[in-house]
């Protein structure tokens, strides 16, 4: 798949994304909702002692810390230093050592073929230029090394949330692609192309028992989740549009609860070997 050609200011885009993910309280969301995903990815990629591992868009270390606990030599990289600082504190509390490094997924500051495992757990999917990010995942992985990804699907809660927020959110940079496409098997296979072999994919769900109503789901995401906060800031002061977006996000929450107390958040697990 060919990435559309566009003139973009990479530093400006990076600054905007850095600020977005520093808003709200993503460390809280990571701890309360998605913590189980990191160990899933570590197991899927077979990480163990002696592996040199890079976690791309690592956030607070949801996957990087379990990889270090498995005995690997780990670098956790992310665009947002606030998230890395929080992750470093978590790692210290758990008594594990790893390296934390600010890095842009579009241009990773690492050598070709430097790592045995390159992974990303609901992280690289938010880099706006998919083909550039995918090429970097491949470049820094050694031939025969493993690439492992967990991404939310277009049909799941994040896919529906982004689709719902799109008319209210800031305009994306020219050539950017929607994050949930990384959870579409055909799309991500196209991104990785001939750079990988032995691709294995599986759709799974994460049970979430944190919300009693769709309104609670809405209130949570508009207070802690950077992309949702950005959408509301764009329509700040427009009471009618705020009410519309509130109702639309609440409907997503109610649809995933379906009268029960457990949401099932769908994600795609992909593993491959660098060709």
Automatic annotation (TrEMBL):
Q: Which UniProt keywords apply?
A: Methyltransferase, Transferase
Identify the residues that the record assigns to the Methyltransferase domain, covering every copy: 53-145
Any GO MF annotation of the entry: methyltransferase activity
Q: Please give the CDD domains that the UniProt record associates with this protein.
A: AdoMet_MTases
Reading the lineage from the top rank, the first entry is: Bacteria
A Pfam family assignment: Methyltransf_25
GO annotations under biological process? methylation
* PANTHER family given in the database record: 2-METHOXY-6-POLYPRENYL-1,4-BENZOQUINOL METHYLASE, MITOCHONDRIAL (PTHR43591:SF24), METHYLTRANSFERASE (PTHR43591)
Record protein name field: Methyltransferase domain-containing protein
Give the organism, scientific name.
Mycolicibacterium rutilum
